[in-house]
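[step 3/7] inverse_fold.run input=structure_tokens len=298
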């Protein structure tokens, strides 16, 4: 047997052994999988075969998904069981390859998606308004897209009695939806659509540019207040807390009855109100009237 023939035989034997190895390994893996799922109830889920971009219609999902059998306990509660039930909804978050397709990743197709905040969804009936504010007036510059904020304004306006002016502060907007933040410590969103707060970032030097979603009426309110007053942003509480009906002014800043009316008037007229004491001060006595001239002698 010549050398060439020996090489051919060796190659054939190698291929046979390799094929046998693959067959044995495949059977082993399948047997282990069957053992792992033995006695478990299986269910069918849709799994992304590739990344699904934001704004993809449910009618196009067949190009991005496949069905797989998984143990019932591994199925996410909100996993989609019938793609046709999604109708014309679209994805508002990126879906990564290997993820189960969940109902919560879709929204109505009449919802506008913004690019500035990586796909934050904005209802079509809201206006997008951007305003600038210093970081120290906006929770230290850590406002994030998708948060709700409250906006307070401090302004000077004619007093209710028409005499002089009054400076006051009150909340003008509640539950304002943040669409995008430029500057400050606003983190980007992760692939799962949540804010990435793990990165260490510097506090903003300068102003933040905050874009919010508002009704037309509230958009006018914010624009006017931004032009005519001084704004302050407060992060909303998770509790249903009511804001005071009465604005804060010098008249009630220190509590009812602490300041006299005269002190309130002087505080409102002063450029440096902190220099005026909150306690009663004695009023300087007016100089006594000059004595009447003696009658001329007759």
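[step 3/7] decode complete -> sequence:
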């Amino acid at each position: 047997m010549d050398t060439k023939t020996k090489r051919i035989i060796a190659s054939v034997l190698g291929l046979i052994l390799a094929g046998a190895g693959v067959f044995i390994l495949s059977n082993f893996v399948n047997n282990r999988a069957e053992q792992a799922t033995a006695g478990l109830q299986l269910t069918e889920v849709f799994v992304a075969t590739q990344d699904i971009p934001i704004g993809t219609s449910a009618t196009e999902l067949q190009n991005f998904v496949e069905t797989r059998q998984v143990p019932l306990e591994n199925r996410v509660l909100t996993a989609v069981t019938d793609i046709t039930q999604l109708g014309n909804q679209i994805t508002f978050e990126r879906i990564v390859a290997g993820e189960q397709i969940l109902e919560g990743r879709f929204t109505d197709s009449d919802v506008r998606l913004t690019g500035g905040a990586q796909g934050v969804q904005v209802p079509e009936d809201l206006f997008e308004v951007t305003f600038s504010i210093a970081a120290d007036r906006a929770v230290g510059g850590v406002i994030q897209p998708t948060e709700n904020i409250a906006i307070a304004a401090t302004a000077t306006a004619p007093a209710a009695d028409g005499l002089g002016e009054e400076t006051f502060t009150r909340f003008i907007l509640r539950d304002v939806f943040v669409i995008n933040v430029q500057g400050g410590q606003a983190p980007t969103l992760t692939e799962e659509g949540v804010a990435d707060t793990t990165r260490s970032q510097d506090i903003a030097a300068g102003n933040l540019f905050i874009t919010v979603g508002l009704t037309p009426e509230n958009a006018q309110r914010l624009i006017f207040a931004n032009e005519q007053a001084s704004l302050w942003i407060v992060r909303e509480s998770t509790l249903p807390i009511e804001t005071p009906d009465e604005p804060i002014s010098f008249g009630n800043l220190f509590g009812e009855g602490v300041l006299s009316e005269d002190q309130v008037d002087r505080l409102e007229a002063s450029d440096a109100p902190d220099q005026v004491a909150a306690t009663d001060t004695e009023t300087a006595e007016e100089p006594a009237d000059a004595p009447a001239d003696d009658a001329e002698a007759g």
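[step 4/7] annotate
The two ends are 169 Å apart (CA to CA).
The first strand starts at residue 42 and ends at 48.
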